[in-house]
């Protein structure tokens, strides 16, 4: 009981420090599209050799990207997923490796800044870039949707709106969600935060769509892969979960 109380106290202190001194204070007056435009304009997640903004290590490190691309390539081919909807495509360094497998690849992001960069860099007859706010816009339909390390940067209200849209329209047979989570099982999922560049690891939390308050409905769930990736001196992993949304 005493240890539980200590953990709660530490979590409150972490949330207080994040609220007052955190990186995200500079984004608190911005809308979500403005938040992510600023992230990419400022290069908050890093820049490439040409000085262009990137989506960070999660889109470029081979030990993270390689297993993901292998697992998704198998999944897309096995189930003959013609239309792939990439929600939160970021710098498209991962999506470009899956592009040849799709009859149509719809790469969406809330940031016009990164989309303009992507349109200059990537072209293909089966590729379309589209600006999309997953919390407020109608979700484009497809066979499979990929949401890769996106929700962890959003508030609970935005994530809930996304889940509500999934339940309402049922636009996908398969939903693949990748999230950065604390290692182990002793953490509280889905603690709230404002939209911004940081994620919930500093709160000892992470996003689990099928847990409260989101309670995603699905037919079948499968963890496709987990890749250890510690951050900020915390043991953590990047988990990719497959949800079969309808038979």
Describe the structure.
The protein has 247 residues and is an alpha/beta fold. The protein has a single domain, classed as Rossmann fold, CATH 3.40.50. Helices cover 31% and strands 19% of the residues. The chain contains six helices and seven strands, in the order αααβαβαββαβββ. The chain has a seven-stranded mixed β-sheet, covered by helices on one side. Strand 6 and strand 7 (236-244) form a beta hairpin. The mean pLDDT is 92.
Quaternary status of these chains?
Answer: single chain
Helix and strand element order: HHHEHEHEEHEEE
Give the fraction of residues assigned to helices. 25-40%
Structural class: alpha/beta
Poorly predicted residue ranges: none
Distance between the termini: 44 Å
What best-fitting shape do the alpha-carbon axes yield? globular
The name CATH uses for the topology is Rossmann fold
From the 3D coordinates, which CATH architecture would you assign?
3-Layer(aba) Sandwich
List the total number of helices: 6
Question: Which homologous superfamily in CATH is the superfamily?
Answer: Vaccinia Virus protein VP39
The first-level CATH class is given as: Alpha Beta
In what order do the strands lie side by side in the largest sheet?
3-2-1-4-5-7-6
Most strands sheet: 7 strands, mixed
Strand percentage, roughly?
A: 15-25%
């Amino acid at each position: 009981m005493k240890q539980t109380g200590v953990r709660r106290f530490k979590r409150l202190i972490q949330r207080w420090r994040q609220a007052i001194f955190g990186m995200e204070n500079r984004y608190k007056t911005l809308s979500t599209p403005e938040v992510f435009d600023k992230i990419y304009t400022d290069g908050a997640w890093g820049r490439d050799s040409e000085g262009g903004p990137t989506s960070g290590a999660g889109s470029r490190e081979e030990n993270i990207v390689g297993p993901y691309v292998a697992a998704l390539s198998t999944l897309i081919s096995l189930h003959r997923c013609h239309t792939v909807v990439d929600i939160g495509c970021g710098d498209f360094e991962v999506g470009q490796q899956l592009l040849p497998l799709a009859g149509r690849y719809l790469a969406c992001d809330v940031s016009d800044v990164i989309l303009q960069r992507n349109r200059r860099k990537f072209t293909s007859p089966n590729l379309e870039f589209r600006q999309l706010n997953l919390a407020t816009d109608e979700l484009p339909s497809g066979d499979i949707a990929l949401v890769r390390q996106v929700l962890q940067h959003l508030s609970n209200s935005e994530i809930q709106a996304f889940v509500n849209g999934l339940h309402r329209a049922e636009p996908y047979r398969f939903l693949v969600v990748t999230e950065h989570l604390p290692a182990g099982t002793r953490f509280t999922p889905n603690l709230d935060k404002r939209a911004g560049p940081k994620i919930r690891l500093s709160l000892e939390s992470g996003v689990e769509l099928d847990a409260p308050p989101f309670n995603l409905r699905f037919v079948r769930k499968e963890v496709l892969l987990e890749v250890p990736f510690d951050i900020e001196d915390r043991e953590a992993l990047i988990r990719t979960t497959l949800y079969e949304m309808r038979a």
